[in-house]
Amino acid sequence: MAAMTSAVAMPVSATAFSPRRAASSAARVVRRGVIASAVPRDGHVHKATAAPVAPLAPKSAEAIADNISYQTSKTGVMPLSFETPDMYRATAESVREQLFENWNATYKHFHEQNPKQAYYISMEYLQGRALTNAIGNLGLTGEYSDALRTLGYNLEDCASVERNAGLGNGGLGRLAACFLDSIATLDLPAWGYGLRYKYGLFKQSINATTGEQEESADDWLEVGNPWEMKRETAHKISFYGSVVDGVWTPGQTINAVAYDSPIPGYKTKNCISLRLWDAEVAPKDFNLAAFNDGDYATSMAETNLAQTLCAVLYPGDGTREGKCLRLSQQYMLCSASVQDILARFKERGNADWAELPAKVAIQMNDTHPTLAAPELMRLLMDYEGMDWDKAWAITSKVVAYTNHTVMPEALEKWPLELLEELLPRHVEIIKRIDEEFIASVKKAYPTMAAAELDAKINTMRILENYMDPVEAAAAAAAAAAAA
């Protein structure tokens, strides 16, 4: 797992926003049950579920070979030029066809039964190669091996062609991928959310002359990804701008576009989704007038932002620009995912927002997605018309947070002035969450000495070293009087 070291040395008057504490305020890491299995393994009708979908018919090696041969005809590659990478693609398409039967049935089942569903939000997923995993989970490894052998190919050779998805780099991403595999295998209703990085982390090579490691971009999507499907789903993601009386007027807006990949369970019909977001600019948002006037920088501002947002996993944060990019990535992931979750809640016929905690559980994987909590508050208040108390009661029951380490260098902190510039509406929400948390602590410990209590609170609050302007003025006046 890559350690996120965004904390910067600041004078006492400066302020840092701590995502870990924000998450802890929004969710006390209470385990919440996920109601109703997605697709029952047996033939019985379980409570809160409908009759299971029909199982896939067993596939013979001969039938699979015929299907792969059919897939080769759709590759557009001339027969004499057909090589192992082309056979990998044809085999992947054959496997995908079988996965899609279960994938579509699972989605239909979720929609009809409307169970409580978990949504796992993570900045990274270290999945490994999808071909052998999917074939194994379908229970067809032997059949595909035999089918490819009759066609003159080897399953291991075809599988080795697959590029590792550049979506993760360590324990955090591997854990996230394992969670999705386990959830699918246990027949639980859930989705994963992440970002569709173009270059992932980096590709390693050794310089033949110096013997030193060299790093270059890993374009894992160079030849496409047969496992993903681009959807028409898109959500607007906004940055910068200003807030007047709680109304945010953004300065920049891009679209988060959905790419879905199937996550099959092991020997089960349950096949859940990993939805990755990519950044794009809608044609209507392109500033053609500025472009024709020669102001190319202005006309391409949103396009450049979109191309940058999902370029690399964990961009360097040694500069202010790097910090801004990382924070923008995290907000894009949170905003698109939460908008999508609420849209699905409505799509399934839910009319009462008080029922959201009974239908939705959002799990934030480490500190990166913790902006999901204030984003959910923003959407419930600014778009659904809720007051603060109702929105907070719902949010605190819906979101949960996993902390992976207590190492200070792995726990993110962001300069408040950067957050105020990038997400001004969220800062208003975060400040109030912080204020109400402090008030609740002071109410719970009325007999503790004020100096001791304030010292403890400053180590737990979301905004470190922050003092409300009114409090700051009062403190300054008291200090002046004492002098």
Which parts are unreliable, with pLDDT below 50 for 5 consecutive residues or more? 1-14, 26-57
> How many helices?
18
In this structure, how is the largest beta sheet organized?
Answer: 7 strands, mixed
* Overall tally of structural domains: 1
**Which outline best applies?**
globular
What percent of residues are in strands?
Answer: 15-25%
Quaternary structure annotation:
single chain
Q: CATH architecture, please?
A: 3-Layer(aba) Sandwich
Strand order of the largest sheet: 6-9-10-3-2-11-12
Give the CA-CA distance, first to last residue: 51 Å
Radius of gyration: 25 Å
- At the third CATH level, what is the topology name? Rossmann fold
Q: Can you say what the CATH homologous superfamily is?
A: Glycogen Phosphorylase B
Summarize model confidence as the mean pLDDT: 85
**Helix and strand composition category:** alpha/beta
What is the CATH class designation? Alpha Beta
Fraction in helix: 40-55%
Number of strands: 14
Enzyme class: transferase
GO molecular function: glycogen phosphorylase activity; pyridoxal phosphate binding
Cofactor: pyridoxal 5'-phosphate
Pfam family, one: Phosphorylase
